[in-house]
Design a protein that fits this description.
This is Carbohydrate kinase family protein. InterPro entries: PfkB_dom (IPR011611), Ribokinase-like (IPR029056). Strand 9, helix 6 and strand 10 form a beta-alpha-beta unit. The strands form two sheets. The protein has a nine-stranded mixed beta sheet with strand order 5-4-1-8-9-10-11-12-13, sandwiched between helices. It has a four-stranded mixed beta sheet with strand order 3-2-6-7, covered by helices on one side. By secondary structure, the protein is of the alpha/beta class. Helix 1 packs across helix 9, helix 7 crosses helix 8 and helix 9 packs antiparallel against helix 10. Bound molecules: adenosine-5'-triphosphate (ATP) and magnesium ion. The site of adenosine-5'-triphosphate (ATP) has 23 residues, from helix 9 and helix 10.
């Protein structure tokens, strides 16, 4: 079958919870909980996809430091092949510090080595043997963004299928050449806000119609409303699995991507893959952080059965 290769950013998340209010300049407040976990959209995607049972390899870069060790050990524990992750002696592994109070959070990210990750760091032998390429968080990786069209061309010339989730642009410039990029992307997986920002449209269907002239399959994530796909000009809306007790929605989008791609690459239709993506996104909201619910495939199946009344026998057929 071949591997699914994720080319992307790696960092850690330090999450401080239970604050009464945001910190104020010159003063100090206390958090009542703290966790240090695997961060970054690409890593959460790779981790959860591997836990679901896909064969996943990561191509990325971390520093030769403690945060780098943490990222590597967490990915390996979930079965992700990390042979092609470069360790850079000169730069640090980045981190996001997230402080949260109630449903609100404020985040600061130090990109570290992800700033410098680009085509030169890619192990092409690994790509040549793989079947699918996934790229995420393109605005956090300036060098990879510059090389994106070449990377996708190369993947297509190697006979691979491709997927892209752009994620948020911290500069809010949204300067991606989508007319060049999207013809090379088999599955485009933005969320609603990102889709509107990238296309300059005010409504989802209008934005999808605009993309239909040059994009392939587009699946837009709509949070609690589920997702909407466009394939050959046909729209398919699939509602979410309602979770009344959301712990947090960190990584729900990456988990959706993992579910969708895991299922789609087994030969299922876009619509069935949307349903499976929604299930895996909903499962992600039942635990803290992006990987909390993804301890093992058996645990994921158990949550699907008990919390979402979902029979895996149906879906695996
Ligand atoms: N409260 C919820 N209840 C059930 N399912 C949810 C909920 N929130 C999200 N999901 C599922 O997860 C999917 C992805 O969520 P969302 O639309 O928030 O993605 P995103 O904005 O890309 O997230 P991320 O911040 O992880 O990038 C949704 O399409 C839906 O299927
Ligand atoms: Mg997202």
């Amino acid at each position: 079958m071949g591997k699914i290769v994720v080319v992307g950013e790696l960092n850690v998340d330090l999450i401080l919870d239970g604050l009464s209010h945001l910190p104020v300049k010159g003063k100090e407040i206390l958090a009542n909980a703290m966790s240090l976990t695997l961060g970054s959209s690409s890593a959460i995607f790779a981790n959860n996809l591997s836990v679901l049972g896909s064969d996943v390899a990561f191509v990325g870069k971390v520093g030769e430091d403690l945060f780098g060790d943490l990222v590597m050990s967490r990915l390996r524990r979930s079965g992700v092949d990390t042979q092609a992750v470069v360790r850079d002696r000169d730069r640090q592994t980045g981190a996001t510090v997230a402080i949260s109070f109630g449903n609100e959070r404020a985040m600061v990210t130090y990109p570290g080595v992800m700033d410098t990750f680009g085509m030169n760091d890619i192990n092409w032998d690994l790509l040549a043997e793989a079947r699918h390429l996934h790229v995420s968080s393109i605005f956090l990786q300036p060098r990879l963004k510059r090389d994106l069209v070449s990377l996708l061309h190369k993947a297509k010339s190697l006979g691979m299928t491709t997927s892209l989730d752009v994620q948020w642009d911290p500069n809010e410039r949204w300067d991606l050449p989508i007319r060049e990029v999207l013809p090379l992307v088999d599955l485009f997986l933005p969320n609603e806000v990102e889709l509107l920002a990238l296309t300059g449209c005010g409504a989802v269907e209008r934005a999808m119609n605009k993309l239909s002239r040059f994009a392939n399959v587009v699946v837009v994530k709509l949070g609690q409303k589920g997702c909407l796909a466009m394939e050959n000009g046909v729209f398919t809306d699939v509602p979410s699995f309602m979770n009344e007790n959301v712990v947090d929605a960190i990584g729900a989008g990456d988990s959706f991507n993992a579910g969708f791609i895991h299922y789609f690459l087994q030969g299922h239709s876009v619509e069935r893959s949307q349903m499976y993506g929604n299930l895996i996104g909903a499962i992600s909201t039942t635990s803290a952080g992006g990987t909390g619910a993804f301890t093992s495939r058996e645990d994921v199946m158990e949550i699907a059965r008990t919390k979402f009344n979902f029979s895996y026998d149906d879906v695996e057929r």
